[in-house]
Amino acid sequence: MNPAQFDDKTSALTTWMTLLERGIRVAVSIIDPFQIKTPRPAMTTTTVEQVDPATLKKVIVAAAIGNFVEWFDFAVYGFLATTIALQFFPTGDSSAALLKTFAVFAVAFAFRPLGGIFFGMLGDRIGRKKTLAMTILLMAGATTLIGLLPTYAAIGVMAPVLLTIIRCAQGFSAGGEYAGACAYLMEHAPRTQRAWYGSFVPVSTFSAFAAAAVVAYALESFLSTEAMGNWGWRLPFLIAAPLGLVGLYLRWKLDETPAFQAVAQEHAVAHSPLKDTLRHHAVAMCCLGAFVSLTALSFYMFTTYFATYLQVAGGLSRATALLVSLIALAFAAALCPLAGAYSDRVGRRATMATACILLMVVVFPSFLMASSGSFIASIIGVMLLAVGAVLCGVVTAALLSETFPTRTRYTASAITYNMAYTLFGGTAPLMATWLISMTGSNLSPAFYLIAVAALAMAGGMALPETSKISLHDVPVAGEEPVVGAIA
Fold first, then answer.
1. What CATH number labels 52-461?
2. Which residues belong to any copy of the Major facilitator superfamily (MFS) profile domain (predicted)?
């Protein structure tokens, strides 16, 4: 590529970024037209750094409940895919209908990075509290609509069209949920216990999968096939309505984070969060994204793919495979706070190294035991993989906030998280299945995980130690602060 061509492409990218930011500014002006606030009382360092325990408990619940709704819907859609396929894609070919159902699932994933950009910029301009209220409202509303959606038999081709649109809305809202929940929780947490407090976001993720599995299994066990097809499949989606309202109430009742309040008080809110993010933190985003790729891959292999692997490679029944997954998910949820305490004690870099090395070491024994056909061996095998996935998830929750400064934290972390999850998480079951079909070996996905772990190790070790830094940074003289990030 000659210099002229490079300049043309750079100019086009700059123009696109400018247009995108202008569009989002218009959206901000519509959503929050009265941005002039009454002056807040001056914050001392002590006020900013300390949050009372009662408030912290409320913050944990408020941050976790939206994440729970997001992953509960994700898991329910997967567990009930065969039933949903028959309701919205009755082509006479069950395989084709199931494929279309998962295609709708994949399309929703494509909207996550867009949602991350939109809600990330919004969160860095109007605050975490308002933005997270919007994400949970959109997510819970869209999930509830699926439960109320007419089927193909009632409205014909409009049924799958509406399902696709609603799933895209879910993907869009999910793009702003996880990174925002982490930022909201981390900016309230004590400096020396951030990973422990942040671990409750992954706890809500694993708990959501377990709850979805229990609900799906109970419905399939106690309802007839006819009842399940007529109305039973709707119930899990309708659960999102009360959960979403509770989450919205909790989030709206709490205050904005101390870190964002301090930035707003100093009139240092980012005018162009996306531009500032890409200009000052592109390298840090790439390094952190490399590590988050392992978080995404290990998470989806453990929570989504292994239930299928236990049946196909291990010969377990669907009910037994589901029970193994439930036990492992409960184990993972219980392990998260311990992993958080470990990370607070040894630091983020040591935790990343532990997670990468552990996954490289245990992945082969894990796959071998899962394919043995033994119930006990399968549980141990899945738990081994769960330990690595939990370590990755907990340290990622901390790093998403610690790697970037307050004024662009939401934007940078949302883009990094969603790009990694879209590229490595959403494709994990497909890649694992493709590798087995191409090689004929049930162990081939293990090699893929090892390769990604090596990439994650390289990216993670390029990041500085951030476990003891303050997240309450206020820019001085218009400078962009670098908080534990590589500029």
1. 1.20.1250.20
2. 59-468
Q: What is the pLDDT of residue 474?
A: 54
Give the gyration radius of the chain's Cα atoms: 22
Helices 128-148, 112-126: inter-axial angle, 10-degree rounding = 140
Please say whether the dihedral angle defined by the alpha carbons of residues 325, 350, 431 and 369, taken in this order, is positive or negative: negative
The per-type count for the chain, helices as H runs and strands as E runs, is 23, 0
CA terminus-to-terminus distance, the chain: 26
Can you give the pLDDT at residue 20? Answer: 47
Residues of the chain where predicted confidence (pLDDT) is lower than 70? 1-50, 90-99, 101-102, 268, 473-487
Domain boundaries, the chain: 52-461
Contacts of 26 (CB under 8 A, 6+ apart): none
Would residue 244 be called left, alpha or beta, if left means φ above 0 and alpha means ψ between -120 and 50 degrees? Answer: alpha
The full DSSP string for 157-194 is THHHHHHHHHHHHHHHHHHHHHHHHHHHHHTTS-GGGH
Concatenate the DSSP letters of all residues of 63-105 into one string. HHHHHHHHHHHHHHHHHTHHHHHHHH---S-HHHHHHHHHHHH
Three-class secondary structure of residue 52 per DSSP: coil
Return the residue matching tokens 């029970």: 323
Give per-residue pLDDT as tens, 162-177: 988 998 998 899 899 9
Full DSSP string of 362-403: HHHHHHHHHTS--HHHHHHHHHHHHHHHHHHHHHHHHHHHHT
